[in-house]
Amino acid sequence: MSKPTVFLNAILNENVELLLKDGRALNGVLVGYDDHMNLVIEDTMEETEERRRRLGTIVLRGNNVVSLNPED
Fold first, then answer.
1. What pLDDT score does 66 carry?
2. What is the 3-state secondary structure (H, E, C) of the chain?
3. Whose CA is closest to 21, among 67, 66, 70?
4. Domain-by-domain residue ranges, the chain?
5. Is residue 1 pLDDT above 80, yes or no?
6. Which residues in 20-53 are b (16+ Cβ under 10 Å) and which e?
7. pLDDT tens digits, 49-71
8. Domain 4-64: which CATH number of 3.40.50.10490, 3.40.630.30, 3.40.50.300, 2.30.30.100
9. Burial of residue 17 (number of CB atoms within 10 Å: 0-12, 13-18, 19+)
10. Is the distance from CB of 41 to CB of 60 less than 8 angstroms?
């Protein structure tokens, strides 16, 4: 298993899909992170069961992320 920073460096500036603890799904471009796994995502789109909306650039606290996957 690789270290999280190795994984994050490999997908930096790539489109990613995130699943959050509250059930929301986010899609955007991973442009940065820190030692606490806080993420900076650009061109972010949020999807819930009810709607889809554009959030733009966000800083996401790392402990809210359930999964992070690069998009194909």
1. 96
2. CCCHHHHHHHHCCCEEEEEECCCCEEEEEEEEECCCCCEEEEEEEEECCCCEEEEEEEEECHHHEEEEEECC
3. 66
4. 4-64
5. no
6. eeeeeebbbbbeebeeebebbbeebebeeeeeee
7. 889 999 999 999 999 999 999 99
8. 2.30.30.100
9. middle
10. yes
* Amino acid type, 54: R
Q: Would you state the structure tokens that stand for residue 49, as one six-digit string?
A: 């069961």
51: tokens are 């709607």
In tens, the pLDDT along 6-62 reads 999 999 999 999 999 999 999 999 999 999 999 999 999 998 888 999 999 999 999
Return phi, psi of residue 19, to 5°.
Answer: -115, 130
